[in-house]
Amino acid sequence: MSDFNDYSRVDKFEKRRKNTKSLSVFLVLGSILIIVLLGVIIFGGDDEADQSAENQSNAAPDESEQPEDEDESTPKEDEQSVTEENESENSNSTSDSSNDTGTEEENNNDVETEQAEPSDDNVTEAYTGNWEPVGTEQTGQHTINYTENSQDRKEMRKAVALATDLNEDSFTMWWIERNGNQKVKTTTSNPSESKIYRVYLTWVEGQGWKPTKVEKLKENDQKYRFE
Q1: Is 196 exposed, middle or buried (0-12, 13-18, 19+ CB in 10 A)?
Q2: Would you say 128 and 113 are in contact if contact means Cβ atoms under 8 Å apart?
Q3: What is the pLDDT of residue 68?
Q4: For 174, how many CA atoms within 13 A lie in the half-sphere containing its CB?
Q5: Compositional bias (Acidic residues) at which positions (predicted)?
Q6: d(Cα 129, Cα 79) in Å, to the nearest integer?
Q7: 72-121: per-residue pLDDT in tens?
Q8: Which residues of 111-143 are buried (b: 16+ CB within 10 A; e: fewer)?
Q9: Residues 185, 179 contacting (CB under 8 angstroms)
Q10: Gap between the Cα atoms of 194 and 203, Å rounded
């Protein structure tokens, strides 16, 4: 009976020892598993953070380069804008000048002029030139028509503009008077009267009015007629 009890105690102790050993093994395995999981979480997170930082680092130059591209293109756009504005201003200035006074080079292409004797003290400069007749729409025997808006008056304006730097559409024809057979002399100016001319015209049969002499005047000596 005593031996049986001893055996039972030994058997229980052996079972308890085995259970303790198994529990220890499970605890060790559990600890290892926990350590592995923690390592995965920690080092995996670091890898993701490193990857994110690397991506951001790679993306950063693109973002920083973009303003440089914009900065490089901006001056070109500004230069183009300034150039276009300058060209527009120059074009407008040229157009205004043409509208106000016309272009002497256009009117006097291939025209040779010579200094002439002034007809009075009101003349600052006088010259003649080899201008051509301006052409005409009139037919038959010509009789000068001094009436406003007549064909003669329209063609006289062309001849005056041809011999001066006045714009045909804007200058004022103050006075026209007979100066011989089929000849007239006109007093004209630009709208501001800063340029005043006395222009001598001769009628050429079938070809129209031809400028023969131009005098630049100090003062508008025909304006008094309208005051």
Answers
A1: buried
A2: yes
A3: 46
A4: 20
A5: 62-72, 102-123
A6: 45
A7: 433 434 444 444 555 555 554 444 444 444 444 454 567 899 999 999 99
A8: eeeeebeeeeeebeebebbebebbebebeeeee
A9: yes
A10: 28
